[in-house]
Amino acid sequence: MKTEPSIVIHEMTMVMANMSLVCHDPRSKINKLIWYHGNPLKSPTALLLLQLSAISLVSQLIDVGLKPLGQSSIVSQIFSGMVFGPSLLGHKGLVTSKLFPTRGAMLIETMATFGLMFFLFGVSVRMDLTSMVRPGKQAMTIGFSVFFFTTLTAGLSAFFFARYVAKETSLKESLFLIAESQTLTGFPVIACLLTELNMLNTNIGRLALSSAMFCDLLGISLTAVALAVMGNKGGGTLRPAMAILSSVALVVGIVFIVKPAILWALNRAPKDKPLSETFIRSIFLLVLVIGLLSETIGQHYVFGPLVLGLVVPDGAPLGVALISKTEALTSLVFYPTYLSISGLRTNIFKVGAQASWIVSSVVILSCTAKLAAVMAPAMYGDYMPVREAFVLGLIMNAKGIVELNLYNLWKESKVLSDEEFALSVLSVIVVTAIVTPLIKYLYDPSWQYTAIKRSTIQHAKREADLRILVGIHNDDNVPAIVNLLEVSHASEESKIAVIAIVLVELVGRATPVLVAHQPYGSLQTSTTSTSQIINALRQYEDQNEGFVAVQSFTSISPYVTMHNDICRVGVDKRATIVIVPFHKQWAIDGSIGSVNRAIQGMNINILDSAPCSVGILVDRGILRGSMPFASTGRPLYHVAVIYIGGADDAESLAYGARMAQSESVDLTVVRFLLFGAENTKERKLETDLIDEYRQANAGNERFVVVEEVVRDGLALSASIKEMVDCFDLILVGRNHQPSPLITALGEWCECPELGIIGDMLASPDLRCTSSVLVIQQQRMGTGKLMQHSIGTDRNQLLIHDVPLDEPERGSWRITMDRSSIDRTVV
C-alpha cells in the first residue's frame, strides 16, 4: 500500500493588524544538526548566540566609524539594532524572518530586560544617596530649575502643538507623554557620558552629577505616581490610590527593614576578609524578589531594585563586591543588547511628515528650555563663565537608557504607536549625536590647568618654599616618598610644603570624591591603608617640626580621570613639582613584582596636563626601607644628575643642587658631551648654566661636576651602565635637546613617559639598586616643553647669590674621555 508523505508543521505565524501570533508545537522534534541537513537556527540557544554576536559585531564596526566624529557609544549601539530592524535590512522581512524571527524575540528581549534590571541596580549602588537628598545649594537650585521649568515648557508646547494633530491619530494623547519625557535627567545617562568624556571629576562633571541626582529624585517620584495611575486606569480613584500607597509601602519597607538588615549582616562580617559568597548571593536574590514585588503592585520591575541599590552602602566592601560581580556582564552584554533592541523595534518608514515636525518642535523647545534652566542659575549663583554654563546645559540634555526604557514600556503598554515610538527613539539619537561632539569641542578639562606662570624649581627664588605634591597609591610607596622628601633639604631659609594625595581607584560608587584631611591633630587609630599613609606623613612632619608642613588629601576616582584631581590640587596649592610613583614595583630579588597599566596612563596624563614640573619616581633598591635614610646613621647619601641638555635636565640639576645643600647628601653632576661639538652655541649656554650652579655651591665639597666626552649613543649607554651602581638616587630629565647621542637609543624606549635615558635606567635588564627620579619641567600654555631661558648675558642667568668674580673653592670638576681622565680642583 502506497502512502503520501505527510507534512508536519512545527510552527505557524499569523499576523493580524499590529499583532503577530506564533503557534509552536512543543511535542515536535526539531532537527538542528547541520550534519543531518538541519537548521541550527531552529534552536533557541543557537539563535540567541547568533543574535548577540551579530549585534555586538555591527555595534563595534559602527562605533569605529562614528568615533572620529565624536559620537557616543550609545548612538552606535542603537544603530546596530536599526541595521537589522525594519528601518534597514529587515524592511523586506528577509533578515528579520531568519535572524530575528518572532519566535526568538521573547527570549532576547527577556534576557535584555533582566540584565537591565541588574544594570540599573548596579548604577543605583554607585549613587550617593546623601547627594540626592542633601545636595549642595547650587546643585539643588539647578535641579529644581531643570525639573519644573522644563516640565512647564514641555507641557505648554505639547498643548500648543496638539491642535495641529489629526483627531483620528493617537499622537494627540501621546504627545504630552513624549513632551514630559524630555524633563527626565537620568543620572545613569549623565554618569556614563561623563565617564566616556573623561569629565567625571572635573568641576562641571561633579556639579552635573549632583544636579542630576537631585533631579532624578523628583523624576523617580513623579514617574512612580504616573505608572501607578496608568497601570490602573479605568478602575476608579481607589485602585490608583492603592497602587501609590503600595509603592510607598515598598519604599518604606526597603528603607526601614531591608537596609537595617543589610547593615546588621555587614557589621557581623569579618573585617579583614572578603564578603562571603552567600552574602552576595543573598543580595542578588533580594534584587529578584523586590523586582517581583514591584511588578506585582503595578510598578515597573526596575523600581524596587533601583530603590534597593540606593540603600546599599556604596564603596568597599559591599558596593565593590556587588559591582565586581556584575559589572562586566551587565555593562558589556546586557546594556548594549537592550539599546540594540530599542533600535530593532524602530521603523522609520512608519514616520509621517506631520508627526515629525510636531515632535521635533516639542523636543527642540524642551531641550532649549532645559539649557536655559541650567545656564541661568549656574551663571547667577556661582558666576560660572558662559561657555562652561553652556557645556553644563548640554550635559544635562544628554539622553540614553532612562528615556529608552520609558519608551519601550509605553510601547509594550500600547501607549505609543510604532510611529511615535520611532520618533521618540530618533529624538534620543539626534540629541545625543549633537550634544556629545559639542561638549568635546567646547570643553577640554586640561584648559583649567594651563600654566600662565612659571612654577619650577629652576626658576624659583632660593629662599622660596619648595611645594611638593606627592601621589601615593599604597603603603609600599610611603618609604620611598618619605626618603625623597628627606633628601629635598628642608631648612629655616627654604621650608618644604608637602601636599600628599592618597590615590584610590573608584570602584563600587559613581561619584568621585576628593577629601581634605585635617592638617593637625593626633594620629589616626584606624587600620585602613589611607590612615596608615596619613600617619606616616604626620610623623615625618613631626620629625621636621618648623621646617615642614604636610597637608593630606584622598582622591577616589577612576584612574583615567585621576590626573584631574592631582592637577586641580596642584593649581590650588601652587605646587612647584608633582611627584608620582612609577607604575612598576620591584621585588626584593630585583625582578618586577607588579605592573599597573592604569597607573601608567594616569602618569602620562599628569605629564600632559600638570601646571608645574613633574617627577616620576622609580623606586628600586636603596630608597625602599622601613625608616628614612637620615635615621639609619649613614654618613652620606649619593645622588647623581645625568645632564645631556635641555629644559628637563636643567630642572633636574636645580633639584639636585637643592639636595646638595644637605650635609647628608653628596651630588655628582655627570655631564655627557658629544665629541666634536665643542664650539656650538648650545654647549656654551649649557656650560654657563652649570658654571653658575658651581659658583652657587662654592665651598661645598659635596658638589662635583663630571664631564665625559662620548662619540655616539652606544658609548653613552655603556657609560651610564657603568656608573649606576655608584649612586643611591639618579635624577634625569625626561626629554633632552636634540642630539645624535640619544637619537638611536629611542628605538628601544618601552616607557615613553620616562624618556629615553629614564627608560634605560628603569629597565629590568639593568641590574642595579639605584632609584631614579625622571623629571619634566613645567609646560607652558603652548602645550610644548618650555625651554629654559639661558641668554648670552650672564646677568640673565638664574642664580645671583654668588658674585661672578668670586673665586670658587672646594667644588670639583672632572673631565673624562674614554682614554684619559683629567681631574682638577677648580
Your description of this structure?
- This protein has 826 residues and is an alpha/beta fold.
- It folds into two domains: 391 residues, Na+/H+ antiporter like fold, CATH 1.20.1530; 360 residues, Rossmann fold, CATH 3.40.50.
- The chain is 50% helix and 13% strand.
- The chain is built from 26 helices and 17 strands.
- The strands form three sheets. Strands 5-6-4-3-7-10-15-14-11-12-13-16-17 form a 13-stranded mixed sheet, with helices on both faces. A two-stranded antiparallel sheet has the order 1-2. A two-stranded antiparallel ribbon has the order 8-9.
- A hairpin with a 5-residue loop joins β8 and β9.
- The chain is elongated and about 95 Å long.
- This is Cation/H(+) antiporter 15-like.
- It is found in: Membrane.
Stretches where pLDDT is under 50 for at least 5 consecutive residues are 1-9, 622-628, 782-813, 818-826
What is the typical, i.e. mean, pLDDT?
A: 78
Helix count equals 26
**In terms of structural class, how would the helical and strand content be classed?**
alpha/beta
Counting structural domains, the number is 2
- Indicate the CATH topology of the largest domain: Na+/H+ antiporter like fold
Looking at the overall shape, the CATH architecture of the largest domain is Up-down Bundle
Give the strand line-up of the largest sheet.
Answer: 5-6-4-3-7-10-15-14-11-12-13-16-17
**Total strands:** 17
CATH class of the largest domain: Mainly Alpha
Query: What general outline do the C-alpha atoms trace?
Result: elongated
Distance between the termini: 123 Å
